[in-house]
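Anyone have C-alpha cells for Related to exo-beta-1,3-glucanase? Sequence:
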Amino acid sequence: MSVLLSFIALLSFAAAAPQAVKTSSSFLPLSSSLTNPVNLSSIYVDQIQAQKPIIDIAQGLNISINPDIILNSTSPTHPVSFIAQASCNGPQPGSPSTFWREQAAHNGIAATLSGSFTVWRNVVSDFGADNSGSSDASGAINNAISSGSRKGNGFTTRPAYVYVPGGTYKISNSVNMLVNTFLVGDPLNMPTFVADSSLGTNPVIQGFDSTQQSTTNFYTGIRNIKIQTTSISTGTKAVGLNWAVSQACSLFNVVFSMPDYSSHIGITMTAVVNGNNEGGGSGTLISDCSFIGGAIGIQLSNQQYNLKGLSFNGCSTGIYVDHVFVGTFQGLTFQNCNYGVDMSNSYNVGAVSLIDSSISSCNAGVYTAVTGNGEGSLVIDNFNVGSGVTAVKSSKDGSALLSGSVAAGSTWVMGNENPQNFQSGKMYQINRPAALLSGDKYYTKQQPQYENYDVSQFVNVKSASGYTVYGDNQHDDSDAINALLAANANCKITYFPQGIYKVAKTIYVPPGSRIVGDVLSVISGIGSNFYNPNNPQPIVQVGRPGDVGVAEFTDMLFSVADVLQGATILEVNMAASSPGSVSFHNTHVRVGGTADTKVNTNCAPADTSDCKAAHTMLHITSSSSPYIENMWGWTADHSLDGGPNQNIATGRGALIESTKGAWLVGTAFEHNTLYQYNLNNAQNVYIGMQQTETAYWQGIGSPEQAPSPWASNTSIGDPTFSNCASSGDSGNSQCYMGFHQQISSSSNLVIHGSAFWVFFNDMTDGSYSNAGCPNHNNICQENAVIMTDTTSLFWYNLLTKSTTNMVRDNGVVTAMQVNNPGGWEGSVPGVIAAYLKDSGIANEQ
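Reply: yep, here.
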C-alpha cells in the first residue's frame, strides 16, 4: 500500500513550471516559508509515460488509475493529473443514533498559536452544562464559548466549535457569542434553550460580540437549536436572539418558540456599544429557520439581507422591517398572522423582493407605504395568497394595493421601473429560465450537515491511515490532500478539522467529493506555482471542463498565504449531475487581514503596486453549474488580528461565465480592483441579494487608477475603463474605480437585490478616508454598473450608494442616482425597482 500512496502523492497533481515574471523581491512567495519546502519541478507527459510499470503495480493492487490528461500537446509545460479511486459505492446514508461530529476525532488546531488550544468544546461532557432543564446551564455554556482567553483576543486565531448535545437547557443569563464561534446543536436531537422567567428583555442568545463593531462581527454560526421563551410573561418584550452581525455568519435550522398573543420577538438586530446603538450590521443570509408565536418573528435592522426558506406560524408580524436597504425574501411561508411583512416604516426601507412565497390565514401579505419614489420599493415574484388575504395593503388608508396572488412568471412592481418611471403597482411578465427552476420556483438547497451518515462514512484528513496531513500553517499538505480526495471520491465524505492547510500545488476536487470543515477550515495557497499573472493557476479547482457529478463544500475558507498575483483562489468547472449537486454553503474566500498570511503585513503600505495578492477570487467557468449560498469574497481593508489597515490590490472578484444554470443566493464580494462581479458570456444565472464595496484605496489621491496596478485582459472579460476618457464622464479618479458589476454578452439573467456600496475614496494622506464623500449625499464614485450586448435581463431592486451613474448600458448612461433617489434614509443613494433589458416586456428602456 505504501508504494501506491507514494505514487498517488507523486502524480495526483503535478504543477506547471513557473515562467519568469518581473517581481518585487520583497513580495516573492518563498517555498522556504514551509517546514517541508516543496519541489516545484513539474512532471510532463514523457515522464508520466515512463511511469507505466508503476501504473501496472497499482492496478495489481485493485485500484483503478484513470489517466485524465488535460493538456495542449504542443506545450510540454501543461500540468497532468491522475484520478485514483478505490472501488466503492458511497458514502451511504443510514439511521445513526449519534451525530457523526460527536464521534469524529476532534483533532482540529488553532494553527497560528504556539501553545495548546482546544477547538472542539462539548458543553455537557467538557463544561458540565445541565441538559435536564433543572438547573441553570448558561454559565457552563458561556464558559465553553469564552475559555482559552477568547474574548477580544485574536479574532481568527482562537476558533471554537461549541457543541450542544440534545436535551433541555435552562438559560438564566444570556448566552454570549464571540466572533469566530460556531454554536451547534445535535441535529438528530435538537437541544432546547428555555428562557428562565428572570431573563426579562435580555436575549436568550446574545449573538452580537460587543468587543467588535456590528459591521465586523464576522465568521459566526448558530445551528440546530430550539429557543423557547414561553416561560417569560407575554407582556414582556422577550428576545430569542440578538443577531447584529455581518458577512460570513451562518444562522441555520434554528426554531424560535414564543407564546401566542405575546410581545415576544424571535430575532432582533441591536448593537449597543457604550450605550449607543450603532446599527444592526451588514448581513448576508439567514436560512431555513422557523418562528412560532410571538409579536414579531424577525425585527430586521441591517444594511442588507437574504432571508431564505423561513416559516412563520402564529407570529403577529412575520418580518417587521425596522430598517434595511436591500431585502431579498425567498421561499417564505406565513400562516395565522396579521401581516407577513410590515415595511410601513418606508423612510428606512430601500427595496424588498418577495419571491416564491406563500401566505394563508392572515390579514395581509405586505403592509407598506407608497412613497412615489424609490424609497420603499417592493417587488413580488410568485406569491401564493390564500383566501381572504390581501396581498399588499396600504399603511396610509388600509386599501388594497394588490388583492390576489402573483403567479409564477409574473412580477408586481412598486417603485422606479427601468428607470425614472415610477410605478405604484404594475404587473410584468418574466421569462423564468427553465434551467433555474425546480417546479415553478427558483431552485434552492438546504445546507448539508450529513446528519444521516454514520461516522464510518467520513474520512478525517488528519487521521487517515497512510496519509500525513498537518493543517498547521507550516507544512505543504497539497500532495496528501490530493491523494485523499482522489481516493475517497464517491467513497467517503472528507472532513477537514479546524486548521490552516497550506498547499503549494492546485487542489483538484474530483466528481463524487463531499467536503466539510469546522469553524471555516482554511486551504491557503503558497509558492511559485501561483505567481505568474499571465498564466493564473487555481488554488482549489472543482472539476475540470467536462466533469459532471457531485461536489459539495460546507464551512470551508480558501485563501492565499502570501502575495500571489497568479492565483485564482477558487475555480469551478464541474457541471452538476442534478441541480445543486455542485454546491457551496457557508464557504468563503479571503485575501489578507489575518495573522496566518503574509499579506497581512506585506500589504500595509499605501502603494498597492506590489500588493497584487491574488489574480481572481472566484471563477465560475462556462462548463460549470454551481449552487452557491452564503459566500463572502473579502479582500481585507483592515487586519482582524491587529495591525495596520490593508491596501491590497486583488485583481478580480467573481467572474461568472456559466451557461448551464448557476445560483448565487446571499453572496458578497468586496474591495477588488477591476470589479466585484462580472457576468461574461453568461446565461441562465440567478442572483439573490449580492453585496459589494469598492476598494477603499481607490479614488482621490490614490497611487493607482483602475485597472492599475493590473492590466486589463479583454480575453478574460476585463473592463478597460475606456469610458473614463469619453464624453459624459468626468475622467477623474472617481471614474477609475472598480465596477460593482460588469455584464457583457450575457442573457437569461435574473437578479433580485443588488446592494452596491462605496464608503471611502480618498487616499490623499496615505491611508483611506471618506474625505471625498463624508456622508451619503456626496458622490464617491462615477459608475456602478457597466453593461454591453446583454439581453433577457430581469433585474429587480438595484441599489447604489454615493455613485453618479447607476447603469451605463452600451456606452450610454441609462440610470443616474439623482433621478432615482432613496435607499439610505431617503438621501441621494439610488433605487431602481425593475431594470428590464431586452426581455420582451413592453415599456422597457
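The CA atoms of residues 561 and 597 lie 4 Å apart.
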